[in-house]
């Protein structure tokens, strides 16, 4: 009986979303209101909503409720466009919030990735990025600032790619990328305002200078429903 009840509720909202009766960004009624309308328990309502979330149709924001998921932004890792540019080109509005910036010593793992000595000072940048006012991405970036004198004095909520090009006459060229589907760790989930263990995508990116020196190491944590990877390969 419980199984059929939450499947019925899941189909009901799923159909409304697929038919665009409920449009992207629409806030759903509260769990209590849904339970009262359909005469269902809070547990049954929550199960149906969580299933819709797993399908990518809705998402939950802590202390705000459930919303219809907007279309994902398309990310092409073979393209060197910045977050701001590819989000804007797809008709969305990007925004970046700097959460923390500090100089700190590189630990052993980071030093090995960057090809530097352990405890070498690096610039750490912690940012939260938004698409249409929805937090979708957490970045933890480590920059070898000996290649970029004075960068710690810049406004680092802006596009780093644009800053490198305009101030330092540098462009991102070679990079190593790794992708891993995972549950979001507590620090990323908290920064995004969602529950720990929520499905996400972890990207590790290593950017190089033109002479093959590591310029920065980036760790990105995306909501699973916010981005779709598409790679175009041409001869």
Quick take:
The protein has 235 residues and is an alpha+beta fold.
Number of helices: 7
The count of DSSP E runs of length 2 or more, i.e. the number of strands, is 10
| Class by SSE composition | alpha+beta
Q: What is the molecular shape?
A: elongated
CATH superfamily of the largest domain: Chorismate lyase-like
Distance between the termini: 56 Å
Helices and strands, in order, run as HHHEEEHEHEEHEHEEE
CATH topology label of the largest domain: Chorismate lyase
Give the mean pLDDT: 90
Report the sheet with the most strands, covering strand number, pairing sense and barrel closure.
Answer: 6 strands, antiparallel
Helix and strand layout, with pairings?
Blueprint: H1 2-18, H2 31-38, H3 42-54, E1 58-61, E2 65-68, E3 73-75, H4 83-89, E4 94-105, H5 108-114, E5 121-131, E6 134-143, H6 160-168, E7 175-183, H7 186-192, E8 199-208, E9 214-223, E10 227-229
Parallel strand pairs: 3-10
Antiparallel strand pairs: 1-2, 4-5, 5-6, 6-9, 7-8, 8-9
Helix pairs in contact: 1-3, 2-3
Pfam family, one: GntR
Domain HTH gntR-type: 3-71
Keywords: DNA-binding, Transcription, Transcription regulation
Write up what this structure looks like.
The chain is 29% helix and 32% strand. The chain has 235 residues and is an alpha+beta fold. It folds into 2 domains: 2-68, Winged helix-like DNA-binding domain superfamily/Winged helix DNA-binding domain (Arc Repressor Mutant, subunit A); 73-229, Chorismate lyase-like (Chorismate lyase), CATH 3.40.1410. A 6-stranded antiparallel sheet has the order 4-5-6-9-8-7. A two-stranded antiparallel sheet has the order 1-2. The longest helix is centred in the N-terminal third of the chain and has 17 residues, at 2-18. The radius of gyration is 21 Å and the shape is elongated. The model has no long low-confidence stretch (mean pLDDT 90).
């Amino acid at each position: 009986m419980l199984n059929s009840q939450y499947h019925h509720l899941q189909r009901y909202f799923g159909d409304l979303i697929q038919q665009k009766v409920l449009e992207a960004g629409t806030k759903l009624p509260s769990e209590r209101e849904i339970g009262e309308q359909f005469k269902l328990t809070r547990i049954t309502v929550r199960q149906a909503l969580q299933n819709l979330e797993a399908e990518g149709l809705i998402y939950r924001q802590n202390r705000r409720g459930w919303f219809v998921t907007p279309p994902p932004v398309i990310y092409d890792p073979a393209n060197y466009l910045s977050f701001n540019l590819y989000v804007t080109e797809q008709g969305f509005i990007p925004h970046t919030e700097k959460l923390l910036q500090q100089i700190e010593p590189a630990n052993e793992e980071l030093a090995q990735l960057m090809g530097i000595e352990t405890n070498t000072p690096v610039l750490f940048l912690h940012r939260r990025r938004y698409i249409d006012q929805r937090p979708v991405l957490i970045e933890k970036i480590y920059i070898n600032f000996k290649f970029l004198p004075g960068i710690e004095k810049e406004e680092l909520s802006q596009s780093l790619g644009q800053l490198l090009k305009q101030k330092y006459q540098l462009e991102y060229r070679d990079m190593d990328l790794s992708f891993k589907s995972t549950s979001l760790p507590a620090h990323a989930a908290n920064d995004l305002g969602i529950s720990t263990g929520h499905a996400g995508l972890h990207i590790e990116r290593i950017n190089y200078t033109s002479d093959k020196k590591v310029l920065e190491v980036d760790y990105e944590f995306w909501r699973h429903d916010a981005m779709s990877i598409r790679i175009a390969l041409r001869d």
